[in-house]
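Hey, can you fold this one?
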Amino acid sequence: MSSGNKPSGMKTVNWAGLSSEEHKQLLSRPAMADSASLGNTVADIIKAIRLQGDSALLDYTKRFDKLEGDCFTKTEADIKQATARLGSNIKDAIKTAYEQVVKFHQAQVQDVIRVETMPGVVCEMHTQAIESVGLYIPGGSAPLPSTVIMTGAPAQIAGCTRLVLCTPPPIADEILYAASLCGVHEIYTVGGAQAIAALAYGTETIAAVDKIFGPGNAFVTEAKRQVSNDFAGAAIDMPAGPSEVLVIADKNADPAFIAADLLSQAEHGHDSQSILVTPCAKIAELTAIELEKQLAVLERKEIAEKAIAHSVSFVCSDIIEAVEISNRYAPEHLIVQTENPRDLQPKLKNAGSIFLGAWTPESVGDYASGTNHVLPTYGYTRTYSSLGLADFVKRYTVQELTQDGLRSLAPTVTCLAAAEGLTAHKRAVTIRMDKLNKQ
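Sure. Predicted structure:
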């Protein structure tokens, strides 16, 4: 393996010089926390919430998130006061982002599909909003009104009748304002696995929801997994882990742009991952230099440095091989900085969200282009989709037959029912046919 440690800490390797096992190793995600220990801890928290309700929820919130007082419910008065405290610039930015997301997700509304599969046999596909949804908004060092918009706006458009937002205290004014735009009026300052348990099973204050949305740390992710595996729990949007980005770049790409995009994910957390794939060794070298320069001015420098330390820059043979590497990695975010990025798009099979061209930074998708930033990670883009309106609705079918329609379909149905030995299925048709034949 040929490698070199650049000043930024990002490893650069030659793809052709690696074995299959080295390919697999370098494309693996940073290890998550000890899953057995984490699973047991989360299971204990969930059990406590189910048994003790608000009492346990309040205890955990005070212990882990330093809640002041004994109330974790936010009122309409709290929302109005938060809105009044915010400056016009941030309110305008949040509103613009909200309007962009609404515009894109409104276009995803499905009309009723109606097909007459044969004369007298009508089949329909309808959608119905999920009645109650929980929106989990991570806490930490920065408020995330963007995640409120990404989960709240589609729920609002879908017509969900109850939107419940949970986020660790202290809750930022920006989150409360974004929630009000999305029609969220039930807000609780609780976070972590305990919030997921409360949403899934309910407490004296928080009634259970049908489905839980939103990203979170390892405890939140594990709690979502556990409640979704319990028939008495709640459904979830998708499995998710630490944030990640992969950049495909050719010789004409701008190293400063590449470095900025890699760092935009690295600053999320120390376990985030940023990957560059390029057939140009010079681009890899210049990007490493840019990473060092740009890291120096970041407010979250220490976090980004840790993420970059386990990130990789691959030098491959050509752009086609770069696409193959990307499809194998299956990134959450995929940025294509090549001469003709649109030409590559049909070949890109596994990605949560794709950003084409030099003037499309990943940041626009995170905030205000209109697409959703809640995306599958950890390679789940092979089978899961980015969050969209469809996640907030359920589909059901309707069929209606006339007498002639039943006559036409009866021979097929009775034959198949007989072949499967399901006599009652067959008789449900033949009894009707007997009546029709006597008319």
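Confidence is low (pLDDT under 50) at residues 1-8. Let me know if you want another pass with a different chain boundary.
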